[in-house]
Design brief:
The protein has 455 residues and is mainly alpha-helical. Helix content is 70%, strand content 0%.
């Protein structure tokens, strides 16, 4: 019994940990990256993209949480695909999840390096980047509870710095520093520009869906996942709206569209030294919180794939003392650092977004299939997604529109991403899948559910 127990991740997480995992990963998107929406769609296009893509993520959280609340093992969308779609789809989803979070971690490292150079252009940022990632990797190595306790602190402080910046502008009085009419433009490229802005509008929320990757480690999935995820989404919508409002009123649209750290630039425009220092701290802490959560999520996806032998099983080993997937954690570190070396922030962000969007489309399809296989009342659910199938339809439509928008300006990245996953699929079909026991892989009977309809 003890030996069997040692093969599983520890159940130590509650709703606040799930909130910290989801918001911690995503909040950095309000400190950097979202402002490229202005370059694509103008100031008004940016806020339209923010709220429209918010609908996509609210829908995604609903369907993710229902399926995540019934899947017993770690891996999130990968584990769902394992039970509802089969090996090839689950291999691709697992790979997409890993690259989504590894690329986001690399983007975090790039921003840390660039903001450190605002102190002194001669600062060598690389040692600080590597040291930060090593420290966070070690924290993840030691245990998920300590990791996410740390994220609660980092995320909470980073979010408060946005609130500090908001009130420093005196937006509520006649002395307000915000000059929206002077600093913003409208829709320079019309509604096509709004469509193009959807791509970076994802950056306000991208990663919140990763909360389900920690489902196996929740004390109560039926409570921790929906409460933590929904509270996290509410936090992000409020933060995103404040971020657009303050940055658009403080920084000229053409400057804001190119900024590496827009909230920090808004603080610089306010010329209040204390606020500038606070936003510097907030930007760094948000990057660290994001990288910390990315390490946790990417390693869980990699670990889950290894358990099912889709990749070498050596990565499925848990630490004998800390019960963490330490080999997966250590393996992914140099990959993230390597992408960080490129220095191409928008390119790194684009590949992360593309990987995520492909997962969303497959997740929406899985939800429809899941409800057909197991209608309400056939199995116990910790959460029920309302208005089914509307959330899945919205995910399909908005994700498809975002992919179309990516074509404008990033068509080569789009094609390169599709080619990468196509080649990975070919490798899996002709090499890795040959030794896979399909009946053992699917494991429907292990869930102790009734046989699904149509099977």
């Amino acid at each position: 019994m003890d030996n069997e127990k040692g093969k599983h991740l520890l159940k130590v997480l509650g709703p606040l940990h799930i909130w910290a995992l989801g918001v911690g990963i995503v909040l950095v998107g309000q400190f950097m990256g979202w402002n490229y929406t202005i370059a694509k769609g103008g100031s008004i296009g940016s806020i339209i993209a923010c709220w429209t893509i918010g609908i996509l993520y609210i829908s995604l959280i609903a369907i993710n949480t229902e399926m995540g609340s019934v899947i017993p093992e770690a891996g999130g969308q990968y584990a769902m695909a394992k039970h509802f779609l089969g090996p090839l789809a689950s291999f691709n989803i697992g790979l997409m999840l890993v690259f989504e979070y590894v690329m986001l971690e690399a983007a975090d490292a790039l921003v840390v390096g660039q903001i450190l150079q605002t102190i002194d252009p001669d600062i060598q940022a690389l040692p600080y980047i590597i040291l930060s990632l090593l420290a966070l990797t070690y924290l993840n190595y030691r245990g998920v509870q300590a990791t996410l306790n740390f994220n609660i602190v980092l995320t909470g402080i980073a979010f408060l710095t946005i609130i500090v910046l908001l009130f420093s502008t005196k937006f509520y009085s006649s002395e307000s520093m915000l000059r929206l009419s002077e600093m913003t433009n409208s829709l320079p490229y019309g509604w096509i520009g709004v469509l193009g802005a959807f791509q970076f509008g994802c950056w306000f929320y991208l990663g919140i869906e990763g909360t389900v990757l920690a489902s196996e480690e929740c004390r109560s999935k039926g409570r921790a996942l929906p409460v933590g995820s929904i509270a996290g989404m509410m936090t992000l919508i409020v933060g995103a709206s404040i971020t657009w409002f303050v940055c658009s009123g403080m920084v000229k649209f053409d400057v804001l569209a190119k900024s590496t750290y827009p909230l920090y630039d808004a603080a610089l425009a306010g010329k209040i030294p204390a606020v500038i220092n606070i936003l510097f701290l907030g930007t760094v802490l948000s990057c660290l919180a994001s990288a910390n959560g990315c390490i946790a999520d990417a390693s869980r996806a990699w670990y889950s794939m290894a358990k099912d032998t889709l990749i070498p099983k050596a990565f499925a080993v848990l630490h004998p003392k800390y019960k963490t997937p330490y080999r997966a954690i250590l393996f992914l570190l140099p990959i993230s650092i390597a992408f960080g070396f490129t220095g191409l922030l928008d390119q790194v962000i684009t590949f992360s977004i593309l990987s995520a969007l492909l997962v969303y489309i497959l997740t929406a399809y899985m939800m429809i299939k899941f409800r057909r296989m197991y209608p309400l009342g056939t199995i116990e659910r910790g959460y029920i997604s309302p208005y089914h199938p509307l959330p899945s339809i919205l995910v399909f439509l908005l994700t498809g529109a975002t992919l179309v928008g990516m074509y404008f300006g990033y068509w080569s990245n789009l094609l390169a991403g599709f080619l990468f996953y196509l080649l990975a699929s070919i490798w899996f079909v002709f090499h890795r899948s040959r030794g896979l026991d399909y009946k053992a892989f699917i494991k429907i009977d292990d869930l102790k559910w009734p046989r699904p309809r149509g099977y």
